Amino acid sequence: MLASSVQRSKPAPYPSKARSALVRRTVLAVLLVGALALLTIAFRSPTSGALHGLQGAGSSALRPFQVAATRVAQPFKDAYDYIDSLANAKARNAKLEKEIAQYRSTQLLNAERARQYDQLKKLLHYETGPEFPTGYTAVNARVVSFSSSPFAHTLIIAAGSSSGLAVNTPVVSGDGLVGLVSNVFPDTAVVTLLSDANSYVPALDLKTMVRGVVHTGPGGTLILDDVAKQLKVNAGDTIITLGTVDPRYPDLYPYGIPIGKASNPTATDTASFLQVQVAPFANLGSLDSVAALVKTQKSK
Question: Does the reported pTM lie above 0.70?
C-alpha cells in the first residue's frame, strides 16, 4: 500500500486571456446599454414614471446618511472657514497698518514742509517789507541743529564767514529777533538765542516810546527791565530793538527788529522798576530757517 501511487486530480485549467477579455467587453457593453436605456427612460418621463419613483426611493433611503455626513463634516468646514477668514483678516490688517504708517509718514512730511515753507515765506515778507533795516542784507540759512544742553540756548546755522557772517551778526526769523552770532566758521555759525542768560538787548516800546533792556528774568522768561515804574508800558505793546542812539557807541542790533509783546506790567511799592514780561515773536524752540543781517554800509 505504501508503494502504491495515489491518483491526484488534475488542476482546473486557467481561463485564457482571450476569454477574460471577452467577458470584460461583454460586461462593459451590458453596462453601456443599461446606462443608455436609463437615460432614455429619464428623458421620456421627466416628471413621473417608475424610474423617478426608484430615484425618489433611493434618495429617501440615503437621506439620513447625507444628513449625518453633513453634520459630521460641518464642524470641520466651520473650523476651516474660521482659520481661513482669520488668516485673511490678519493679512488685511497687516496691509492696512502698513498703509496707515505710510499715510502718517507722508502727512508728517507734508506738515514739516508746510511749516518750513511758512517760515521762508515770512522771511521773504520781512526782507521785502518796510521794517527791514536799511544798510543790511539778509543771508538766509537753514538751521542745522539746536544745543543739547539745557543751560546753553544756541543753535547752528548753515552759513558762515564765507557768506559774510561775523561774530555779533544779528539773526532774525520771519517773526522777529532770534539772537546774535557768537562763533563763526567758514560754512557754519553758532547763534546765541535771545533766551540765553547772557543776552541783553536794548529795547523800545513802540507805542509809548519807553526804553529798557530785554533779557532773561526769573524762571527763564523774557522781561523788559530798567523801566522806571512811573513810566507807562501797556499789556500788548510791541517791543522792538532800540538800535544805535549815539554813533560813538553803535549798538549790535539795528533799529526796529520786532522782539515780542509786553504783558503783565506791574510794580511793587518798594521796587524802582516795572516788571514787564515779554513774549517773543520768534518761536525760538522750533526754527528751520533764519536770516543773518550782514551790514552793507554803516547803519544810522
Answer: no
